[in-house]
Design goal:
CATH topology: TIM Barrel
Structural class: alpha/beta
Bound molecules: 2-phosphoglycolic acid
Radius of gyration: 17 Å
Largest sheet: 8 strands, parallel, barrel
Helix content: 40-55%
Number of strands: 8
Length: 253
């Protein structure tokens, strides 16, 4: 049985005060569920990681980072290493979020190095994959997702794969209010699970959690989660509102 996983990606939002309030609100609202029935993670901006870790300590809510760098230390101005994330109490880290790929220009190869660096540093990577609208319209969805996945996981053995979560986030659905239908999500999730089975074997594929992301909200969470291969939600906008995010955690339980 795959435990449902709901993660809130705060992106470049909140401040020192509201980040702690939001984290505390989530921990309170999800108490009894977080860490038990549902894996819950909040993913604040780097500068608020430490205070958010302190705010959710012993509550069952985990903390993730939005990105990381592939080297362990040195002259990489502005970058953050896996060890630094671990040091402040982070467990999860997003790798290859669509905004990193399409706004900041990260390649599949670079994202793959991030996944490997995350695991090497004792973190649990959430590898984000997904197609642009033009790619979907051009019938390229499976090809793009397969490339994201194969390059993103290149070099990982089955032994390392248990650390990895996949997030399918169609780029056209992110922040647009245009959610994939539950059927569209299920189709791609099933495709991803099949690919994982080819790459790492059926058992690993059955154990890997595949999250959906892209305008998921309190109103559509239950229907998305009712799909066989949708194991959780990676939530942007709706994770900034305590009540909405808690409803989504409850809907996933
Ligand atoms: P959204 O973002 O829920 O605001 O569409 C999802 C994401 O980018 O992870």
């Amino acid at each position: 049985m795959r435990k449902p996983f709901v993660a809130g990606n705060w992106k470049m939002n909140t401040d020192s005060r509201s980040s702690v309030e939001l984290a505390q609100g989530v921990a309170k609202g999800a108490s009894g569920l977080a860490g038990e029935k549902v894996t819950v993670a909040v993913i604040p901006p780097f500068v608020y990681l430490q205070s958010v870790v302190n705010a959710v300590r012993s509550t069952g809510v985990a903390v993730g980072a939005q990105d990381l760098y592939i080297e362990s230390k040195g002259a990489f101005t502005g970058e953050i290493s896996p060890a630094m994330l671990k040091d402040v109490g982070c467990n999860y880290v997003l790798c290859g979020h669509s905004e990193r790929r399409h706004v900041l220009g990260e390649s599949d190869e670079f994202v793959g190095k991030k996944v490997t660096a995350a695991i090497g540093g004792g973190l649990l990577p959430i590898l984000c994959v997904g197609e642009l609208l033009s790619e979907r319209d051009g019938g390229q969805t499976e090809a793009v997702v397969a490339r994201n996945l194969k390059t993103g996981l290149a070099g990982l053995g089955t032994d390392k794969m248990s650390a990895v979560t996949i997030a399918y986030e169609p780029v056209w659905a992110i922040g647009t209010g245009r959610t994939a239908t539950p059927q569209q999500a299920q189709e791609v999730h099933e495709f991803i699970r099949g690919l994982m089975a080819d790459m790492f074997g059926k058992k690993l594929a059955e154990e890997t959690r595949i999250l959906y992301g892209g305008s998921a909200n309190a109103g559509n969470a239950k229907e998305l989660m009712s799909q066989k291969d949708v194991d959780g939600l990676l939530v942007g906008g709706a994770s900034l509102k305590v009540d909405d995010f808690v409803k989504m955690i409850q809907a996933s339980a």
